[in-house]
Amino acid sequence: MDHKKKIASSKKTVYYLILTAGLFMSLAVIYGLFIGLRINFIYTSLLDASLEIKSNITLARSEFLKEPGAQTPLTFRQAMEYLDLAELNTRSLLEEKERLNIISIPIDKVTLSEEVQKLQALLLNYRGLSSQVALKDSTQSSSNTHQAWEALYSNIETQSKKVEKEVRNVLTSFVKIFRITQLGLAALSLILCLFTVIIIYRSEKQRNLYTRKLEGASLDLQKGLHRNTKVQRALNESQRKLSTLVQNLPGMVYSCKLGQVWEYDYVSSKCFQITGYKEEELIGNKIISYYDDIVHKEDHKKVIEQIYQAVEEKKPYQLVYRINTSVGYEKWVWEQGVGVFSEKEDELIALEGFITDITEQKTVEDQLSLQSNALEAAANGILICDKDGAIIWVNTAFTSLTGYSSKEVMGKKPSVLKSGVHDDSFYAYMWGKINVGETWQGEIVNKRKDGTNYWEEMQITPIKNPIGEITNFIAIKEDITERKKADESLKDSELRFRGLYENATIGIYRSTPEGKILLANPTLIKIAGYDSVDELLNLNAENTYVDPKSREIFKNEIEKNGKIFGFESKWKKKDGAVIYIRESARSVKDNDGRDLYYEGTIEDITDKKLTEEALIEAKEHAEQSDRLKSEFLAQMSHEIRTPLNVILSFTGMMKDELQDKVDDELAKGFDVINEEGKRIMRTVELILNMSELQTGSYSYHAKHFDLLNDIIQKQFKSFRPIAEAKKVVFKLNNPDVNTTIEADEYSTNQIFHHLIDNAIKYTHKGKVEITINRNPRNNLYVDVSDTGIGIAEEYIPMLFTPFSREEQGYTRNFEGNGLGLALVKKYCELNGADIKVSSVKGKGTTFRVTFPNLE
User: Fold this and answer.
1) How would you classify the pairing of strands 263-267 and 317-324?
2) 654 vs 657: CA distance, rounded Å
3) Which residue from 284, 448, 732, 803 has the fewest beta carbons nearer than 10 Å?
């Protein structure tokens, strides 16, 4: 249907609607008119009739009540006419028929009819009584009839009021119906009018629209039906702008239809830059499916779940995931989209969104994250301030360094670490330098949270924005307290080394592997016989050796082991004199293991060498003399022991035979002979034992045995009677430890025999205590402690020297020949044991023998 027909059809519809509305309004007016007429009739007919009834009855009564002299037949007749009129009016109430009652309105007349019928009955009775009253009045009727007549009149009057009331009720109901009807008709009229106006307005609007379209079409036709109208040009421009915008976006725009398979129905050309696939390859999944094939397999499930979760909540979704491009590269992309729902069924029908390549951004973020983690994990303390110097970030190493947590220093100035060691000019220079954009680096003393000072090496670097303004300061702090201490120690060491180097009694040098002298101290110059270091630096070490083979042996040893110690050779001095030297050196290598130079020491041992040769010769003579002496002692002790044993034996026999026959003084002589004989025997035993050790004839037999059970306890039992006789406390401390050792049992027994014997012999009062235990290294040791006379500190170095005693001469208080402790020392060395002594003169002595660990 063309626009003209549409306009004509709309006009007809409007006319029909206007006609229908007018008809309804006319009917409403007519209906209201008839309702009004009916109400008016009711008011004028029924109400007037009820009033006439009441008026006529009153007039009739007044006629009957006239004076007897004034009553005439005319008066009676007049009264009866009034009663007739009243009855007529009652009948009109019952027989009312409205001539204009065209519209039927139902009225409830049951109550009204009943009341009117009652009134008619009362009027009929009243007529009869009135006749009697009129007749009797002329003959002086009785008062009873007159009273009955008065009472009946009162009833008629009351009944008339009831009838009037019912008439008014009927009238009221009609008025209500009229009002309701009028309101309904008015509302209907307004609705029809409003509906008509709306229809007319919409029709006019549509007609105008059609008219404008017709005018536009006519105008287009008049202009030659050009397609490039203003609207078309605007649409084209809008599409051009949209296309330009889409193409300039840093990513691809898409629309994806959802079904059993997700497929793109639109995708922008930037998809090729991101995925390597063209638009036509992705639309409709012709070549490949984006979500099924391009999305990385490890991220596919996460992407789908996040999209479904977002569309279920009807919210936009943002995703970060990986894709595989057409050439196999892996990229990171960022996607934002939203679900499109149908208007009627509110079902998800599509996804629309945007995807961009964030691979570089992701790489930068990973680098930033790595840098942030690196800063946090850095061993050095790192502090970042804003341009005003307020702390905004510190790492964990800062907390470890200063003791302050990040919360404690956040927002504060770095001066919280100020130690007070540096003056204000130090800090003014530092801030002045960094405030102009320069880096400050130096060493500073700061104070920790616990109040202790520490040295730190700090570098402060200003951070600038693109326009060159300083936005932050970053400080890197390293605790150099130990290094400072080490530097001080190194300085002291260097000073000491320089002093040692310059004043060393041995020569110190550095040379190339080929022998060129690079460095030499004054002592080496003196040893070589030169006057200055320059002369020595021009010397090649190859030419200093008397025997060239010595230099080859020296180099081969260093090349093999990297070092050499105590290499002895002969050198030629500047004047040609030959000297003996002892050389120690090491090779210093580079990172590739090549020799850089040799450094070492040279000692002139010419005098020592000559002395050594003399000593060797003297030693050989001494050893020969010692062997002769030992052999002589061994032979002499044998010769002494044999007759001594005979003497002691016969002395014992003589004592047994003569003890009861001689006096006490002579009897004690036998004991003296026995004690002194035993003393000589012990001396001989000691001499023999020492002779065996010195001549090397002692037969050493190592075996495993229990030191506590096999030796210590036996010695303890053996010496306990002697200690008790001297009233000295004798104790054995025996912790629960393993006391097994590997040693020579005889020599070990002799060690503790002599130590315990000395402890008891030199203790007059107090105690002697034996303790066996293991030290932290699990070595078994035995302590023999006493509270005896002690040993002078200056004598302790000579304690184990044979035949030496602290007390010398005939005035000494204790017997002994000085061989006991010397033998103990020799036996300890024989068994690999270590013996140490600690003593205080007048307070006591402790000997500790420590045995090597079996493990």
Assistant:
1) unpaired
2) 5
3) 803
